[in-house]
Design goal:
The longest helix has 33 residues. α13 runs antiparallel to α14. The chain has a domain of 123 residues. The chain starts with 18 loop residues before the first helix and ends with a helix. It is mainly α and 399 residues long.
Amino acid sequence: MARRKKDRLFQFSLRGLDTNLLVVLFFIMVFGFIMIYSASYYTASLNKNYDYDSMYLLKNQIKYSVAGLVAMLAVSCINYHIWSRLAVIGYIACVALIALLKTPLGVTVKGATRWIRLGPVQFQVAEPVKLIMIIFMATLIMARGRRMKSWASMLKMVLPSAIISGMILIISDNMSTAAILLGTAVFMIYVVHPEQWKFILCAVGIAVLVAFVLHYVQGLEPAQMEEVNFRLARIRAWLNPYEYEQDKAYQSLQGLYAIGSGGVWGKGLGNSIQKLGKIPEPYNDYIFAIICEELGVFGAGMIILLFIYLLYRIYTISQTAEDMFGRMLAIGVFSHIALQVVLNLMVVTNLFPTTGVTLPFFSYGGTASVFLLIEIGLVLSVNKYSVRKRMEDIRQARY
């Protein structure tokens, strides 16, 4: 007997794809291309490494985005249930990838070893790890989600992500990625946990701890900060930016100047002053500041609304998924993108200490673009196969 369509591993078809999600993704990506060019053309035109080509970074971003779109469509055609069978292998691969950073394959840029070079290919390890951990946590929750009522069982669920986050923090010194990985896992567990008050209790405890740390940091003299910890020094710079305006708080203050000078309507596309050597690499973490300067509150608000609608579509797909695994995959992608967007906006507006968090689909980065689009492909696959399952159930009910 021929296998039913819903059981096939791969089926190329555009039927069942969420067109609303694809449309908002298209607008975000096009908007991102425009802003990457606007934020990078000055730097690229003066840089020998970019062949003095003002469009160099834009061309690279488009190249990787096209590759990501192809991968997204391919993943959307794969029955998402297959990924649960590969989750354990994926987890082992995560450990291996992070460990490879300590080998000659690891590439150090600006004092941080976060990239791996395999022949002509160089990629940031954190990006595939984020994707794989979403799949692993979705598989773990599907297998054990109903049994995590006690504190011990909840900690066991978090432990695999905590291990990977710890490795990322220790080996690559990437605190932002470690926090996003752990935050994504916690949110996925929170969604399905039968006793959500426990998470609220933990959040209150963390808030008290943060308040204590801030009080402690405020009591230290500036000269003591580096002796204690450079991250505490960064918190001190966040709390008292004008004490460090030529050092740790320089980028934050320049970003705030860009945001403040943009006003409601902005200076006009391409007319930013801060990108002309004031903000280092304005096309990366602080691209939102350039958006605010050039397009004002109106342009920034439009971008935020686009992200809200993108997240709304992903969340809607999670709620209509045919099973727990599909729901958790979509929730994982939702929480990853939401955390990254919120953290980036908070950092740029100085509501959070400076960390290396990029703005999805806007900040320059080839590896990030490819794997973000693969995550969207997972969500599209969940929707496609869930729609087919519902349609088949309706047909069977009729006959």
